Amino acid sequence: MGMEEAIGVTYEALIVIIKISFPALAITTALGAILTIFQSVTNINEASIQQDLKIFSTLAILFVTGPAIYLALRDYTLLIFERIAMLH
């Protein structure tokens, strides 16, 4: 395996990681920003509200996107196994 192939595999792995993590990160970040604005406007200074909502929303997002995560990881794993088989 040459340097270019190793860089290509690493790039593909990073793309898969971004595809998997982006929905949860984006929605949780937006929800946190909205909640922060709401707490600033209403003068509610309770940190546990924001943490609880983020945890539950992240779990819900992961539950909904679970099949897509599985497919992305499965496809990438199969691709890596094919490349390993070609090395011999």
Automatic annotation (TrEMBL):
Predominant location category: membrane
Q: Which residues cross the membrane?
A: 20-41, 53-73
Q: What is the membrane topology noted in the UniProt record heading this document? A: Multi-pass membrane protein
Keyword annotations of the record? Cell membrane, Cell projection, Cilium, Flagellum, Membrane, Transmembrane, Transmembrane helix
In which compartments does the protein localize?
A: Cell membrane
A Gene Ontology BP annotation from the UniProt entry: protein secretion
Judging by the UniProt lineage, the source's domain of life is: Bacteria
Spell out the GO cellular component terms annotated for this protein, sorted alphabetically and separated by semicolons: plasma membrane
Describe the family membership recorded for this protein in Swiss-Prot or TrEMBL: Belongs to the FliQ/MopD/SpaQ family.
The UniProt entry, under PANTHER family, shows: FLAGELLAR BIOSYNTHETIC PROTEIN FLIQ
Name it: Flagellar biosynthetic protein FliQ
Give the organism, scientific name: Azospirillum doebereinerae
